[in-house]
Amino acid sequence: MKFPPDPNASTFKKSGIPTEDLQYLYEYTGKTSSNDTNFSPIYSADPPLLPAIAVPLYTIATTFSIDPVHFVPFFLNSIILALTSLIIFLLSNEIYSSKKIAFVLSLLFSICSFAWPYVTSMLLQPLAALTLVSSLYFVALSKRKNSIFYPALSSLFLGLTLLAHIGHLILIPGFFIFSIYHYRNKVKTLIVFLSIFSP
After folding, report:
1. Which domain holds residue 18?
2. Helices 187-197 and 149-164, interaxial angle, to 10°?
3. Is residue 26 scored above 60 in pLDDT?
């Protein structure tokens, strides 16, 4: 697929496409006209989990004729941050056995952290934080409840963390060491944890 005509060409002006849009495309790719090169697809290095989660919101926006450019970023990370605050409450309540402490910690995350700048964005960090905190929550649950279901969910969310933000790969070795120590007396549970994450 080749570039559209030069922004100053008469055929382009007749097409009805705004001149600024095509000029932006040329500047973004470092080209000045359609004669420079063929148009090549632009591939993103971002992990796929956030766009996949955004699809239902995009569908809702298009169904009700709402501009998805504003609708999706406004609601996506807002929902993710609200869920993260909920998981922090549950995790804190599981660790400290106090709903007051859990409420204060979730409130601190919601109000006194860097959560606010992410509310109307499509940045990857909130989703990665949600999956990581969810993984920790299910580890804490597995300590109290003797079931392989919670270690399996913990391993699943740990894997989803990498699909949310590849930069969290640096946290995986430490989390693995913690999990091995936590499940050291539960060989079957440890095998389930490692086997689900390994694919």
Report:
1. 1-43
2. 30
3. no
